[in-house]
Design brief:
Helices cover 52% and strands 8% of the residues. The strands form four sheets. The chain has a five-stranded parallel beta sheet, with helices on both faces. It is α/β, with parallel strands linked by helices. Helix 5 packs antiparallel against helix 6, helix 12 crosses helix 14 and helix 25 crosses helix 27.
Amino acid sequence: MPMTGEPLKVQLLGPVRAWRHGREVVLGPPKQRAVFALLAGRANDVVSVDHIIDAVWGGDIPQTAANGVHTYVAGLRRILEPERSKRESGDLLISTAGGYALQTDPEAVDAALFARRHAQARRARAEGRLQEALDTAESALSLWHGEAHSGVPGPFAALERTRLQDLRLTAVEEWAADMLAADRPVEAVTVLLGAVAEEPLREKLRWLLMTALYRCGRQAHALEVYTETRRLLRHELGIDPSAELRTLHQQILTGGPATSGGTARTSTATVDDRASAPEPAMTRMVLTETPRPAQLPPVARGFVGRTRELAQLARLLTENDRWGASTPIVVIDGPAGVGKSAFTLELAHRLSKHFPDGQLYVDLRGTSMEGRSLSASEALLQVLRSLGVDDARIPVDAASRATLYRSLLHGKRVLVMLDDVLSADQLRPLIPGGSSCVLSTGRQRLGGLAVRDGAHLLRLDPLGTQDALVLLRCLSGDRLRRQEAVARRLVGLSGGRPLALRMMAETLAANPDVPLTALVEHFAEEHGRLDRLASGGDASTSLHALFETSYQALPAEAARTFRLLGLFSDELITVSATAELTGTTEPEAAGTLRLLARRHLLVETGRGAYRFHELMRLYAAECAEREPLTHRSAAVARLLQATASVA
């Protein structure tokens, strides 16, 4: 790669290396290089210390990990900016907002430059500029110097290797299709042979190789590739080649001799015609029988607000250049009843026109009251069936199902909505490659998806007062006309949760003969309020039932802490008070409070303290009664004694 001109150049597409003002710098030990690679891959973005730890150590985190991060950052600063004094903050590697950022032009990082050139090649191809597409694709592929993130340890590097390898092979496939369109099959064969050796189960590569060999007049070699493909797929995945590979095989079997131009043609000319077309059918390795799914449920009546968040995500997900060939992932998290599914469905319907190959929807039932959640393997079975795959072709194991799923969606623009996700491991196998999009919802903040998979995380909070008033009036008919004070009181009692507002509106509309004051008092009484915010026997509309599923999913110690916090749930909750209440150390209490906040059972105030949302406060007080009386008394006594000693 070039080593002059720019102050910093970074290589991630091969062994991780860096050059400063044209001179290579030694990046230090493996974990220090892992920290550098992470920051370079997220150039100009602040990466928190916790995310760095997760990316470098994964599940095996030593107690010294945080100190290790600071040590590695200090080492990188000495290497990258040797002229900087210890008291100077530096210009390249900066500390801010609880994390670190590598400040540089993103295109000084070869992985970002590769993604941009790949996107440019795609645009040129779509606009019919074939030679420009070829030249740009070749310049993108020339940036590779071996396996990406080579020699770097940690889960982030491992996932980046897989992601970037998939992007490279996608670029190779598109370049090879363009070479066939330009009637240059001989040059394509050499590159495709190497790519197939790297990824022997990637069927599109094998289709392109068979086509290139056939058009070079090497019919026997093309048939050998098919025989090897069929044997390999049956042995590794227990499936037969796809419909397009079988069709191509039949066309080659019935084809005539190669023409003088060196291009083999079948009697129907379909192989040559389809391979030389600049766009689609055969430049996409998918089953021709794959249906166009349209599985999004309808948006609930009366959706209001969230305008800024919807606009932000719509912009993010329709900026193709930003993502290149990678799959944009958005994870919406928030407390029960806050409207995550309604918001995500609204977003999905708005975006559907940008994903013309269809929309998939799976309810993963992560917090379902009707039994256990779906495993990734079960979800993949459901999706593959909906994509028209016969049960006989669906592999038994989850990894093979994920491979087939990604092959089916390869080259397509499909929107995938995954509702009520429990964990990152449940979601990851359902992320397709390329230009599709994933929208997911869940009650936990999945920070690992942001670090390892580049997901965009959005926390959904309760509605603001004005939006809540609009929703309440919209759904309750004329009952609240010119009743501003009543409406505002109901909004306050709801805690701004759309589900609670819908329950209130339904009660108002269903009881036109009951005075408003009586209905307001019905909701205002704290005892039993959560049970009144329900609709008949439908557990999915009961806030009490939804809160219960969140509580039941807690680890034992976190559940005990939650119960005890219900004893003084109308106060600000501090780490020291929690430690006294639970009889644990302050570090243990702090960790439990963070977990409860990640599960959206508490809200962090930003001052190292926490509080309950209004309705969660009532639920916590109910849960406190489940703790044995002797335990509650002892907890309060510890807290009072500690308070008295401080006073």
